[in-house]
Specification:
This protein is an alpha+beta fold. It is built from 8 helices and 13 strands. The chain has helices at residues 5-74, 135-147, 154-164, 182-187, 223-229, 252-258, 264-276, 282-288, and strands spanning 88-92, 110-117, 122-123, 128-129, 132-133, 193-196, 201-204, 233-234, 245-246, 301-302, 307-316, 319-329, 335-342. The strands form 5 sheets. Strands 1-2-11-12-13 form a 5-stranded antiparallel β-sheet, covered by helices on one side. Strands 3-8 form a two-stranded parallel ribbon. A two-stranded antiparallel ribbon has the order 4-5. Strand 6 and strand 7 (201-204) form a beta hairpin. Keywords: Cell inner membrane, Cell membrane, Membrane, Protein transport, Transmembrane, Transmembrane helix, Transport.
């Protein structure tokens, strides 16, 4: 039976409509599956991120335990042959981390890290005290820049920044300024402070530097210069007049800068000497090098360390977390985490 032209046209429209509805349904279902897949992946990423944070928190606590035990056993001497200085290579965490794989599959979650002596580096906060540049520390930082084949003139700009970030103790009216570094105040080009007459102090208007990268805000410092300085300078809290450098861990460049009158060749000899036998105390150092460091005090160099940096890295499947933490260790061995940062 032959259909009429109108009926054939209606049947064609019905077929096209059915195809369109089928396509629409497939598109909706595919979109729902895609949204579900995105949600599952997002939940999986959040879980892995949380797992990595807990792993790194455990690693930092482990490092604190190592440092406490070291303080209990080593009697105020820290050197690179101690357990805390051993680098942790990539360690698989198959038995400790559930990362969503089947039981028959291997996990690729790994942990690596290292404890680094923060006082093997020069503390930039030494450059000024109470907003006044210390000429002796300025000379030491200038020597460090010269040892790294950088312009020593950059030291003044960094010192100005450090001084401007510190509160200044104002001298009462009519009283002479007896500060040893009072002459340096006139040399500082930074004047962006305001006076608080109630407590006789100056309230700063700048954030204090907390990491080496803050030097990028100083004129003359480039990313290449900061990267070169990263292994030789730190920004540490000031617990004493100055933060001493550890003789047993500092590189030759820092030793030659910290100890006045010591050349790079002399510093290399000191490093070679401590590699054979670490310095037990300052008397041991002066006995080995009687003609060096005559003007250096225990405020400049020491054989023990108060600040450490813990670097940790966790790899899990396709993700990575890399963090650093600054740990302060007290004389009784108690440890405190001062900050944790993502690298």
């Amino acid at each position: 039976m032959r259909l009429s032209r109108p009926m054939r046209r209606q049947r064609g429209v019905a077929v096209v409509t059915a195809l369109l509805l089928t396509t629409l349904a497939i598109t909706i279902v595919a979109s729902l599956f895609w949204q579900q897949q995105v949600q599952v992946r997002s939940i999986e990423n959040q879980r892995m991120q949380l797992q990595k944070k807990w792993i790194l928190r455990g690693a930092i606590d482990w490092a604190r335990l190592i440092l406490r035990e070291d303080a209990r056993q080593s009697a105020k001497v820290d050197y690179l042959g101690e357990p805390w200085a051993v680098k942790l290579a990539d360690t698989r965490l198959d038995q400790y981390v559930e990362n969503g794989r089947a039981e028959t599959e291997e996990s690729d979650a790994t942990l690596s890290g290292q404890i680094v002596d923060a006082q093997a580096s020069y503390n930039l906060n030494n450059l000024a005290t109470n907003g006044v540049i210390d000429p002796r520390e300025l000379a030491a930082f200038s020597r460090l820049l010269a040892n790294l084949r950088l312009s020593p003139d950059l030291a003044q700009a960094a010192a100005d920044m450090i001084a401007a970030s510190q509160p200044q103790i104002k001298t009462p009216a009519g009283a002479p300024d007896s500060s040893p570094a009072s002459a340096a105040r006139a040399g500082s080009s930074v004047e962006n402070t305001k006076t608080d007459s109630a407590n006789n102090r100056t309230e700063v208007q700048f954030l204090r530097p907390v990491q080496v990268e803050d030097l990028l805000a100083v004129s003359g410092y480039t990313p290449e210069i900061v990267e070169k300085l990263r292994s030789y300078v730190m920004v540490l809290p000031r617990k004493t007049a100055t933060t001493a450098v550890n003789l047993n861990t500092a590189p030759a460049e820092v030793l030659a800068a910290r100890i006045e009158g010591v050349s790079m060749a002399d510093a290399a000899l000191m490093v070679a000497s401590r590699d054979r036998a670490y310095f037990r105390d300052l008397a041991d150092f002066h006995q080995r090098f009687p003609d060096k460091g005559k003007t250096t005090t225990d405020k400049d160099i020491q054989v023990w360390t108060q600040f450490f940096v813990v670097n940790g890295k966790v790899k899990m499947n396709r993700s990575l977390m890399d963090v650093s933490a600054l740990i302060e260790r007290a004389d009784d061995g108690a440890t405190t985490v001062l900050w944790v940062r993502d690298n």
